Amino acid sequence: MPEYGRIIQQLVERCKELSDRDERSEMAMAIIDFMGQRNPQLRDEENYKHKLWDHLFILANYDLDVDSPYPFPTREQLAEKPKTMEYPKLQGDFKFYGKSILQLIEKAIELEPGDEKEALKEVIANNMKKSYNVYNKEHVTDDVIFRHLKELSDNRLDLTNIESLEKSKIYYTTNSNRNNNNRSNNNNRNQNQPNKRRHNNNNNNRSNTNNNNRK
């Protein structure tokens, strides 16, 4: 562990040579404090004292008989490989849809047949289409999205009964709301324009009066 330097390594070797266990333990405590001073960045980490004692044991080549507040690790424990992480099952050709789409699909499968389930299926398909276009940077047809949805749901969600997403209820509801918002914004702008004209006319009248008074 080169970050501790040769001085600490020599101190550890000196500690191992002491015959009295109490003296070794006392010197080991002093070495731990010195190691913390040489590497102050370790103090910001959780359980940094435990890490220092582990490092001391490693520097001693796993051969140090002292009183420690923590159990020393074995060579086998440090050489043990970490467990392989479990990745989400969504991989391969459909990884760009993300885990949230899978969760929505599972929720839609659990719903009873009805308007709510049909609406959720169309919401899922719309989000799948957006994710596909963003990831692949190309336009995708609705029949491809319907096929992917059917495959991801193990043939339990089917949207082949609608012609396209643009003719679905979700599409019309979303666009009608957007159009209504645009109309209201335009109306607000038109209502504000006469007020601006009156304000400008009043300013012009004041300026003309002031000019006449000066004359």
Automatic annotation (TrEMBL):
Pfam families cross-referenced by the UniProt entry: DUF4290 (PF14123)
Record-given protein name: DUF4290 domain-containing protein
Residue ranges of the region described as Disordered: 173-215
Annotated Low complexity bias: 175-194, 201-215
InterPro entries: DUF4290
Organism listed in the record: Chryseobacterium limigenitum
